[in-house]
Specification:
Helix 5 packs across helix 6, helix 8 crosses helix 11 and helix 10 packs across helix 12. The chain is of the alpha/beta class. Helix 10 links the parallel strand 10 and strand 11. Helices cover 38% and strands 13% of the residues.
Length: 368
């Protein structure tokens, strides 16, 4: 099978990081497995805002009225349509113009777009709805990373086309933890509410290590108590094989291994923020404290691997971090359950197999 891949960040860079052991393969959304199974994947080039030709910068302003996806990327691959069996978009932000062309029967390649976040409501929805219905019809398969998103998409389009798939961690990348550890380690880039956890552990004996990007802390760090350690990284994409940009995942894992519990503090959410960090918890086998997010399908309390916290509740964060410090054996068992969950039904290889089944079923339908 020949697969054309459009993504919103350079997967070729991530592929190099995976090959060097610097990051986990679940960030490739199955592509590494597809290739190992004998399929050909062509990753379309991505451009930063600085790299975009002027006309595309102007066209990007149209997105205020209507999201057309990445027009530069789509224009580059338009002529390749007959050379591939499927178009796969691991991030559902790239292909809207091609979807419209497919709706108009002017683009022959089936489109599979993996949707991460629920659609946002806006003042111009009355203007967008007609076009949105057309680009929806241009999608052949709509897997989603959360049930909440799938339900919302189906309701909005009066459809049953959207459904969920389990995205899981790269089991081979993480060394499962078998130690109690101590304190809490927190990392992440999107919608992180670091301030709530800092308020929770300030002037306590609870060891707190926070990894954050420049200008992303959201807290005056001039007078922190000694138990809180902040590790700042540049807000730049890393370069494979070099110590640059945000912290390498392999380095972060060392700190996770030394923790009693991993924290994922979020602001009140309308997106899938926090899922990537949750994959770290499952892969390495550590319990988790996480802000409630209706977009996360894994019920960490029901699975016995962690605790939910309401947004902004610093007192509950303090209570739970202290609970884990007081219950090392329970924390260790919760971490083992997290790893077992990944090994049993939520991991990157099972995700890739599911996606490949979707591709194959789609082509079988096309040939009928």
């Amino acid at each position: 099978m020949k697969i054309l891949v459009l993504n919103n960040y350079p997967l070729d860079r991530v592929s190099k990081e995976v090959a060097l052991g610097e990051t986990a393969n679940h960030l490739l959304y199955g592509i590494n497995f597809f290739e190992s199974w004998g399929h050909k994947c062509h990753i379309a080039e991505t451009w930063s805002q600085k790299q975009l030709p002027f006309k595309y910068k102007i066209l990007k302003r149209v997105h205020y009225f209507q999201n057309l996806g990445d027009l530069k990327q789509q224009s580059e691959v338009l002529s390749l349509s007959n050379k591939f069996d499927v178009l796969y978009a691991p991030c559902g932000t790239q292909t809207q113009w091609l979807q419209f062309l497919r709706y108009k029967k002017k683009y022959p390649t089936p489109i599979i777009s993996l949707v991460h976040h629920p659609p946002l409501n806006g003042k111009l929805d009355f203007f967008r709805n007609g076009f949105n219905q057309k680009i929806w019809k241009g999608l052949d398969v709509v897997p989603c990373l959360s049930q909440y998103t799938a339900d919302l998409m189906n309701l909005r389009h009066n459809s049953q086309k959207a459904f969920t798939v389990n995205w899981g961690p790269d089991l081979s990348f993480y060394k499962p933890s078998n130690s109690h550890g101590e304190g809490i380690v927190i990392a992440g880039r999107t919608s992180r509410d670091f301030a709530t956890v800092i308020k929770a552990t300030q002037n306590t004996s609870l060891n707190t290590n926070i990894f954050y990007l420049q200008n992303n802390l959201g807290y005056n760090s001039d007078s922190l108590s000694p138990n809180i350690k902040l590790i700042c990284a540049k807000n730049e994409e890393p370069i494979p094989g070099k110590n640059s940009g945000w912290i390498k995942q392999e380095e972060l894992n060392k700190h996770y291994m030394e923790a009693r519990v991993i924290g994922i503090p979020l602001f009140e959410q309308t997106s899938l923020a926090g899922l990537t960090s949750l994959m770290d918890c499952l892969g390495i086998g550590k319990p988790v404290i996480m802000t409630k997010n209706p977009n996360i399908d894994i019920d960490i309390e029901k699975e016995g691997i962690g605790h939910w916290v309401s947004p902004g509740d610093s007192s509950e964060w303090r209570r739970l971090i202290q609970w884990y410090e007081n219950h090392p054996n329970e924390a260790l068992e919760m971490g083992k359950r997290a790893r077992a969950l990944a090994e049993g039904k939520i991991n990157s290889e099972l995700f890739a197999k599911k996606m490949m089944t979707l591709f194959s079923d789609l082509l079988d339908q096309k040939s009928i």
